Amino acid sequence: MPESPDIPPTAPAPPARALRLGVAGPVGTGKSSLIALLCRELGKVLSVAVITNDIYTDEDARFLRSAGVLDPERIRAVETGACPHTAIRDDVSQNLLAVEDLERDFDPVDLVLVESGGDNLTATFSPALVDAQFFVLDVAGGGDVARKGGPGIARADVLVVNKTDLAPYVGVDVAQMVHDAEHARDGGRVIALSRTDPASVAELRAWVLETLDRFRAGQHVATDPGPMAPHSHANADAHVHLHASGEVHTH
User: Fold this and answer.
1) Rounded CA gap, 183 and 146, in Å?
2) Cα dist. 210→19, 47, 134, 213, 219 in Å?
3) For residue 78, which phi and psi values (nearest 5 degrees)?
4) To bridge 156 with a disulfide, which of 43, 46, 99, 135 should be the other Cys (CB 3.0-4.6 Å)?
5) If we measure between CA atoms, which residue out of 222, 218, 228, 226 comes closest to residue 246?
6) Do 45 and 92 touch, CB atoms closer than 8 A?
């Protein structure tokens, strides 16, 4: 029987849509300001659009429009009417429709930034909605927050320690906070950010562009941070197991 000729692997087809990047974190950590910063840095080289989430208002969308970082029509608000995590994880339909509308109306779109409403340390995006995600903390929230863990801190693609320029005024050791964050993330990527620090802004910008390049090449795979942090129960016979969803759980 003749041998089959070697068939070279088929190159991945380029994605037919924008890279969707989520931004989650507690209230007041600077999610909207981070998005404004990315729009300023990338809006001249990429086609960018933004979805914001608030429970009852469009406050964050109005802030971004007033900042003049993008054409106002490229910034749209979703009023979730429920806990923020519901609309970014449990039922993403509102946000997914809003993202698809933006991609259609401004085709081609390179990057859609989706801002969660402020939530707690368990808030993460569903991979059905975004391809990658930031989780944002800030030094004014306390230097110990990074040690507290949670799915966002531990398993988002990047943890941003924001507003590092405020550290001297709130008594936070940024290096220690970043060290604690890296430990909580098992060495995962942490960016200490201040919008007044060009080096940290360049690091953030470069990560987004590198992720976009991998996405376009078909080399980026969205991961699910999961709604639950690894934990154990008071059981001498406890054993750890991994759920199909990727959640680590111990009984």
Assistant:
1) 9
2) 11, 16, 14, 5, 11
3) -115, 120
4) 135
5) 226
6) no
Q: Residue 160 — φ and ψ, nearest 5°?
A: -105, 125
Q: Tell me: the pLDDT tens digits for 231-240?
A: 444 554 544 4
Residue % of the chain over a pLDDT of 70:
84
Kind plus residue range of the DSSP H or E element containing 241: strand 240-242
The label of the residue with tokens 């942490």 reads 190
| Closest alpha carbon to 113 in 23, 41, 33 | 23
- One-letter amino acid at 164 equals T
Poorest-confidence range of 4-8, 43-47, 59-63, 203-207? 4-8
Beta bridge partners of 219: none
Under DSSP, the state recorded for 88 is I
58-85 tens-digit pLDDT: 999 999 999 999 999 999 999 998 888 8
Supply 185's token pair.
């993330």
Gap between the Cα atoms of 231 and 46, Å rounded? 41
Average pLDDT rounded to a whole number, residues 215-243: 67
The least confident of 15-29, 85-99, 168-182, 216-230 is 216-230
Q: How far is CA 2 from the centre of its chain?
A: 52
DSSP symbols for 49-73: EEEEEESS--HHHHHHHHHTSS-GG
